[in-house]
Amino acid sequence: MKEIHHWIDGQEHKGASGRFSDVFNPATGEVQARLSLATKAELDHAVERAAVAQVKWGATNPQRRARVMMEFVRLINRDMDKLAEVLSSEHGKTIPDAKGDVQRGLEVIEFCIGAPHLLKGEFTDSAGPGIDMYSMRQPLGVVAGITPFNFPAMIPLWKLGPALAAGNAMILKPSERDPSVPLMLAQLLQEAGLPDGVLQVVNGDKDSVDAILDNPVIQAVGFVGSTPIAQYIYERAAATGKRAQCFGGAKNHMIIMPDADLDQAADALVGAGYGAAGERCMAISVAVPVGEKTADALIERLIPRIEKLKVGPYTAGNDVDYGPVVTAAAKQNILRLVQSGIDQGAELVVDGRDFNLQGYENGFFVGPHLFDRVTPDMDIYKTEIFGPVLSTVRAGSYEEAIGLAMSHEYGNGTAIYTRDGDTARDFASRINIGMVGINVPIPVPLAYHTFGGWKKSGFGDLNQHGPDAFRFYTRTKTVTARWPSGIKEGGEFNFRAMD
């Protein structure tokens, strides 16, 4: 049986805990590897070594750090197929979706090449008599990233790129369910020129998370996962004086106005609701058509599109629409919630409960489900299902529709489909949700903007990627300086290159 270990000080570290977690092939249900889980002592050792490596890395000028990011981009592009293959084998998503996972992380690394500009401070000449004042952005030291299973390339890259480019060392604890890609990324960073010890990949479970939160050397923690754990990490990190940005669950609504292009809206809903088997924090899981006529017409268009979806393993070709969910427990939870929707009175118009894929009977496949006439008191509306289930809540008016999204406890993403500019502008202005799409189903911002939800979808003051990431991973120092005026003799006549 293959064993997966840690990455410490630039090399594979086997670990000594004797504790392991199974890594499954979601398509077959078979265990394909065992993952070594770290002890608290092993994590503390990784932090200690990272703190030593960070001193020199933090003193390296930003342009040289950016050159490492530049080479890292080249290497990721070189190994794109290999990364996608491994990602698909452990997560279950299709190869095109896996490449998209890597690509959206790669775009943040491309943004980080601009770190020298982003780290510039401010300067005031002659703030007082002979006094200059300036600010510097300096790294925090050692920081940590705790990343989820659903984007095993993208989210680690979102965390490590800005942290390292800003001069920090990072302890990365990826998901136990699909840990191989983060380790591959660490190896590529070493090849790109990152000094040993600056990025440590430590695999573990809750024990490792708590060890990160309790370690006094770690100055900041970034997390993506479920809301209860996001809140737990945020509160515990804050209690120990750490910075924290913690992103949790979602229940993303898409409002479909009567004037919308319903074919376009239906296509968008199918992709946004069922892509990656619904295992996306930005998946659209609630469709809100405005008016009975709009709702009937939308359902009429959705049913044939959903029934034609091709579900299968990533090895079946690029025309597979989505693959299995990540674990057997995830599959059972999805089916439990589907049954609760039926029991509570929702109308199941596309029933995927009996889906069975010949030759993959033990895989974690879930057929697509579509509910109509869902109401806000139902569990399938209130709970993040994280599976291929779309709920339709009919609204009588625009105000009722926007009220549904605004009153939900989650505030990650939302979208509206309309041809009316006034409605779109009103929606974007009023909605209390962090990321908004107008005729865009999954409004994930590009790397040079910032990603983050509101309400119980996000905990912390600063978001992921974009300028916020560099603010999060640095602290500001302000200097007030007075020097005697006058010109000294002597000078250099040669232009010195940057060291």
UniProtKB/TrEMBL annotation:
Residues annotated as domain Aldehyde dehydrogenase: 19-479
EC number: 1.2.1.27
Transmembrane segments: none
Annotated GO MF terms: oxidoreductase activity
One Pfam family in the UniProt entry: Aldedh
InterPro entries membership: Ald_DH/histidinol_DH (IPR016161), Ald_DH_C (IPR016163), Ald_DH_CS_CYS (IPR016160), Ald_DH_N (IPR016162), Aldehyde_DH_dom (IPR015590), MeMal-semiAld_DH (IPR010061)
The keyword Ion transport is assigned to this record: no
Keywords in alphabetical order: NAD, Oxidoreductase
Protein name: methylmalonate-semialdehyde dehydrogenase (CoA acylating)
